[in-house]
Structures are given as C-alpha cells and as structure tokens.
Design a protein that fits this description.
- The structure is a homotetramer.
- By secondary structure, the first copy, chain A, is mainly alpha-helical.
- Chain A has one domain (4-189).
- Helices cover 75% and strands 0% of the residues of chain A.
- The first copy, chain A, has nine helices and no strands.
- Chain A has helices spanning 4-21, 40-66, 72-86, 88-97, 102-130, 135-139, 144-159, 164-179, 183-189.
- In chain A, helix 7 (144-159) packs antiparallel against helix 8.
- The longest helix of chain A is centred in the middle third of the chain and has 29 residues, at 102-130.
- Chain A is globular and about 60 Å long.
- Chain A starts with a helix and ends with a helix.
- The interface between A and D is medium-sized, with 35 and 34 residues.
Chain lengths: 190, 190, 190, 190
C-alpha cells in the first residue's frame, strides 16, 4: 500500500487546522491600536498552537520518510492522530478568549496529551508493521523527549488547578524541547 | 488519463470537510467546565461524522489503488460522491445542535444513504471501465457490507420516526461494520 | 518548469472553494422539516455552483494533461482564473439568500463570464507557449462550446433585468453543455 | 530529505489563506446594487492581498525548483514564512473594513515586512545548505527587488502616519515590481 496519499491527506488536514486557528483572531470593529489589545491573549495562544502544529507536521514528515509500507491499521492510527489535532483550534480559541482561565488551560493540556498519545500509537503501529529489526524500529526507539513531554503535560494539567501559569510554562517547555528537529532521522538519511 | 489529480482533489475536499465540521464546536463564552456541557451532543455527532469521513477516505484510498485508468464519467461519479459528502458538516451540525431530534436524524440518514449510493455508482463506473474480467472487478465484487449498511440506513430513516435512538444505533452499527478495512484489497496487494 | 505544483495549488483552491460554498447553508435553529424550507433557494444555488466548479475542475484537469511546460505567464493566467473562481462562494450565497433577485443574478453572471474569459486567456497563453503546431494547440482549437456559453452568459446578464428566470435558465443551459466531458482530449490520449 | 511534502504543505496553506480572505466579503442583506457599495474597500484590499499571496506562491514555486535538498532548519524557516502569511487574512480584513485608516494600514505593512523578512531568511537558509558555489546560491544572489520592496514597506509604515495613501501607493508599487516573474530562474531552467 502506498504512503503518498496518507501524507497528502495529513498535509491537507494540518494545513487547514493551522489556517482555521487564525480565524479566531476576529477582526476588531475599531481602527485604533487599542482595538487590537483584547486580541493579544488570543494571538499568543494562536502562536503557541501554530508552533505545536508545526512540530507535529515536522515530526510526521520525518517519521513518514522512513516508512516503507502502510496498512489499514496505520491509516486509522493516523486518522486518530488527526482527530485530536482537529480539536486544537477549539482548545486554542477557548483558552485565548478566556485569558488562560483554569479549565480552558486544563482542557488544552488534555487535548495535547491525547494528540501525543495518538502520535505514540501511530509510531508503535508503524514499528510493528516494519518489524523489530527494521531501520524504522531502530531509528524511532524509546525517546526521552516523549517521556518528558508526557510528564510535562501531566504536570500542566494538575498544576493548572493551582495556577494557570504552571500549565502555560509547561506547554512552552514542551514546545521548546520539540522545536529541535529529529536529528536521529537526519543523520540516518544523510 | 491520470488518476493522481482525482486522488489529490478528493483528498483536499475530504480534508476540508473533516476540518469544517469541527467549526460547529462553537467556542463557549464561559470558562467553567459546565460551559462545555451544551457542546457534548455536538461533539458526539462530530465524532460520528469524523469516523464516517475516515471510512470514506480509507475505502476511497483502497479502491483507487486498484484503479488503472479513469475517464470523464469517473470524474463526475467522484464529484457526485463529494457533493453528498460535502453536506455532512451541515447534517452533523443540525443533528448535534438539536439534540438528535427526529427530522435532523432522518435527514442525516438520507445524506448518508445518498453518499453510499454515490460510492456504489463510482465503484460501478470504475468496474465498467476496467471490464468484467479485470482485477478491479474481481476485487470489488458484490459485498455483503454494502447491502447491510444500506439496509441499516433505511431502518434508521424509518425507525427515527418512532425513536431517534433507532437511527443513532443504526448509524453506529454502520460505522462499526465499515471500521474494519477492506481486507480483500490488502490481500490482493500483498 | 514543472506543472505539478500548479495542478496541486489549483486543486487545493478549487477544493476549498467547493467546500466553503456549503458553509452558506447555515444550520437552522428549529428541528422541524419546515426549518429547512428557507434553505431551499440557497441549496439550489449551491448545487448549481458545485456543478460549475466541477466543470472547471474537469476541464482544467483535461487541459493540464496535454500541457508539456509552463512559464511565469501561465502561473499568473492560472491565478487570474482562480481569482474569479474564488468569488463564486460570495456570488452563490448572495443569489441564494435573495431568492434570485435581479442584481444578484446579474452579478453571478458577470463573475461566471469573467471566469470563462480567464479560462480562455489561460488556454491562449498555453497555446502560445506550446506553439501553433503543437499537439496542445491542435487539441484545443476554436470551440463552439466557448462561443455558445459566452453568448448565454451575455443573454443571462441582459435578460435578468426583464426576469431573473432568463438568467437562471441560461446558467443551467451552460452547465448542461459543459457537463459533457472534453471528448477531444480523451480521444487524443486514448 | 524530500522537498515534495514541504511544497505540498505550503501549497495547502497558501490555497487556504487565499480562500479564507474571500470570506471577509460578507454577503450583504439587501439585493440592490447599492448593497454592494460598502464592500468596495473590502474587495480592493482582498484584490491587493490576493496578488501578494500570488506573488509569494510564484516566487516560492520558482525558488523550490532550484532546491536540491532540505533539512530541519529549512522546514522551520518555511513554517515561519507561513506564519506571517497566515496573518494576511486578518490584516486584509481589518484594513478593508476600516476604510484604510492609519493603524490598519500600518499593521498591514508590518505583516508584509515580516513576511518579506521571513522569505529572506528562508532563502538564506537554503543558500547556506546548498553552499556558496551551488547553482542555487548563484541564481538567488543579492536582489535589487528585495532591497527596494523592504524600503517601500518602511516608507509605507512611516508615511501612513501622514496619510494612509502613502502606504497604499507603496503596497501597490511593491506588488507591481514583484509581479514580473523571476526571469533569473526561468533562464537557468530553460
């Protein structure tokens, strides 16, 4: 089975998610600079989520490069990932419009955690398909990054009940540790 | 004639349909957890339709892999399918926002039935083009799944006038029986 | 220069145009069948425009198959076509929501005429690039269809000031004469 | 690493940006020609931004043709460009709906300047990756166009505080000087 349509479909969905999020930046009625002020928190949450979608796209891109074959299970594992990513615009807007209130920050973290889990399931499904001795399984071994980011999400979700800032700092930290591209793959390919 | 643009265009439309549906999850004004409560039925109908679009994408993907050629009739049969799929966001939102009232559930079923019919027409058009002895025609023979799901749609449409739950249960059943990928194709390709 | 990105970009824009049009089918508040009644004219104009976008996509698909090379002028001629097509959702919604009143029907026709002109310019630019003796220039000679549909648009625009029905009938006629795929190309390719 | 997905993703985002901008042309309630009058400034800003996105797509297309390889840095430089481009619909709508008032025109210019900077960073990243003696580095040398358009953006941003017209004229000038395709590349390829 061919992986190119899976890539094309994922690219399409991710491209739309990224662009739909910007629709939450509602055009203000006034034309003064101060009319933009209420948009600042919405803009910040847009920026954060844009980086997240960028990270997912980059990692998906890297991972798919090593993929030799796909099957029905992989298609569904990929759709499962896209489902959680499709909830980003909602979570982003809710968080931004409510000035990073407790529950919106918690829900944002839950959706992030679910997306990370879905990504992990996709990786595992691909590993199983390619076999334990494949180049794919060797490249995408147990990653410290995965563990740390999941831990950070859990801290974010719990900590937000004390202060939303704990959650936000955790989300920024996760973005930073993933910002660095998958050098493992680049080395293999080079 | 080349099938790759037909695939690319269908991928594009399906990716947008899936992402447009999520726009119906309107961001609530409050920031409490209870503010999400009215969204639960809308979310459930989103989830159901997401699975449906996923099924259509998967089956379309499987079918197109066996396709050797396309012609003008195939292009239109495909557009006809996309037309009915493009009505999913409307039907999904109407059903979710009205808490699964009779008519929205009935109309949802009608659109599902039309999409299934359109898919059947596309399959038949491709079969005719490839000839009765082609690998394509042999792979996509008469399927029990097609018959059962059409029957379930009809029961759903009729039964919804007694209780919406009959409709909803039928829609979930159809989703379940199609969730299993087309093993026929995977075998052939493997 | 490579034509595949031009195709991919056009497919993307057309896929989004087709799906954005459906957003004008605003989800009604009531759940009775009569709540759908005010949507009927909007739905009819959606159906008409869906067929039009389908025709443009089909013809674009057919034309690009014969294309051997593209240059900067072709890219802009193609963007010019996409510009007019991008106004379809607006014209479609305005016409549908105003129950086919005079001016909306006239403006719809003007945008259709501009799109047809843009398509003609794209074809001519491609013909010039491929040379008068190329297979491309031979396949896409002077077409009766082009002339008739432009004439019908002009009749539609003028006639709508007498009765909107003249316009609507003309638009349906144009859709019918273009529905038949470009047999010229299919023969050449076969 | 493969450049085709980077192209596909960029095409997707640009296609959606272009089409989302048109959504700001809100369908008027009346059906008279005068109901369209308040849309004229919105339409003009849509037209301007459409040309800008077209220019970016064309230049991106030209640049990517010379690209032999991409790495993680290029993916992020490209996402950075897409981020600023994703703010075009917002800036366009704000400017159009406020009849080219000072601040909207200034912000529009700032976003244009940031997008131009992001494009420059992407070009530099690609140059560095391909090496100083590569065909890529030779083709995309120091360009007068880049300098002039950046200068014009700065004049536009400053001048808008005197009169918005200075800004608008500058934006139109930039569009005109970039409208001419990258002959450098076309020569190389031919």
């Amino acid at each position: 089975m061919n992986k190119s349509r899976l890539e094309a479909f994922s690219d399409g969905v991710l491209a739309i998610i990224i662009t739909i999020m910007v629709l939450e930046l509602k055009v203000p009625h006034g034309s003064s600079l101060s009319a933009l002020k209420p948009l600042v928190p919405v803009f910040m949450s847009y920026l954060l989520s844009f980086v997240y979608v960028g990270i997912y796209w980059n990692n998906h891109h890297h991972m798919m490069q090593m993929v030799k074959k796909v099957n029905g299970k992989v298609l569904w594992a990929n759709l499962h990932l896209l489902f959680w990513l499709s909830l980003f615009p909602f979570a982003t807007a809710w968080m931004g419009e409510n000035h990073y209130d407790t529950w919106p920050v918690v829900i944002y973290g839950c959706i992030m955690l679910m997306a990370a889990t879905a990504y992990f399931i996709l990786e595992s499904t691909l590993k199983k398909l390619h076999g334990p001795d494949s180049e794919f399984a060797n490249t995408f071994g147990t990653s410290l990054k995965d563990t740390v980011s999941c831990l950070l999400y859990v801290i974010a979700i719990g900590g937000s009940f004390i202060s939303s800032w704990i959650g936000i700092v955790c989300y920024i930290l996760v973005a930073i540790i993933w910002f660095i591209p998958e050098r493992r793959v680049e080395k293999k390919i080079a």
